Amino acid sequence: MEKLPFNLCIAFLAGILMNFVTPAFSSPTPTPTAIIIPTPTATATTTVSATPTPQPPTVTTGEATVDYGGENGCLATLSGTVNANGLQTTAWFEYGETSGSYSTTATQTISGTSNTEISNEIEVSSTLDCNIETYYYRLVAQNSAGKSYGSENTFASCFLYLDCFGCTVSGYITDSKTGKGISNATILIVNNGDNVVADTDGYYEYLYGSDYYGNVCGEVEITASAYGYVSSTKSGTSGQSEECSCSTTLNIELEPITSPSVSTGTATDIKSNSATLNGIVNANNVSSDVWFEYNKDSGFYSNTSSITNVSGSDNLEVRVGISGLSANTTYYHRVVAQNSAGTSYGSERSFTTSVLPEGTISGYVSDTTGNPIESVKVTLDGKKTFISITTFSDSDGFFAFYDLDADAYIIKASKKGYKRYKKTVALEEGESKEINIKIKKLKKARW
After folding, report:
1. Entry pTM
2. Of 3, 172, 212, 442, whose Cβ has the fewest other Cβ atoms within 10 Å?
3. Which domain holds residue 246?
4. Which residue among 210, 238, 256 closes a domain?
């Protein structure tokens, strides 16, 4: 390499030093300036309220109720109240067979600033063990400010009543005459009003529940019915077992519905225009209407009596009065009874009405002051019968005409010294009539 001259080296080094070294006097000394501080101006004071701190829910655990008559077993209803304290809040219940160890119910959402009632129903047979005597529970609620727990409470489950959740009643509904099963017979479970239908062999089975204390498991009542049969009710008692099940077998025989059994009796209390008809009727356990048929001609019954109703399985006496009959006439009659199975007729019997009694016209003859008049001639003339009868009043003024047929009679009364009397009296068959005759004494005799 070729060497540089000495003077060039000095110039090169001086240039480098000028770029890295700043002389102390290279910047001019600054000139001091005055600082002006403004005078403070008074301003108004503004008060700012503090924002309320959000609060977690306020929770109170309520009572629990247990219904031992649930459709599938025990039902426990848990309750409580929650105040959301103005925030949207979610609430639920925690429960379990051990204190502090919980399962949870479905959640409910609430809001507002007032107490809200919360409840939730738990079906014991599916979510709780009926063999556990005591369950623990509490109400829980949570919002954006935090979670709150209600106090822990307890309720008794249906433990001992589980027997009743497995109770069944079953059996056969059969014909009492043939012993065969009655297809499609209806069985009413009287305890709770449910109905079941028997199969083609007359067999039925029903799982029945309990009352609040399981008593129904010990006894059940059913009513069986079928078309063409008399309904029948039966009850039974079942035992309980450690396996929490019980059963009752109730077999019922149904009586086929049959028409009534009847027998025509002898007529009684027979008069000229009326009589009492009698009969024996057995309704054969089915409500039956009973009446009598009668007429003047045998085998032809154009007249019927009033209707009476009988029931049960006993032979019952039936009596019905009839009237409007003709005197001295033979009538034919029979008893008739009818129920849903049919109509039954008794055998024919007959009776004859009595002869009408003869009619009578009687009375008293007196003066205008009411004193009886003796020996007054009283004459009776029939307009149709053309009879003429004369009699005289006795010391009491009494007179009478007997054995009269139905007719219009002219009654005449006369005595010397008295004004004559005349009156027409209509008399029905067998009728008796009384008339009072008053005659006025004449001032001067005209005889």
Report:
1. 0.43
2. 3
3. 162-256
4. 256
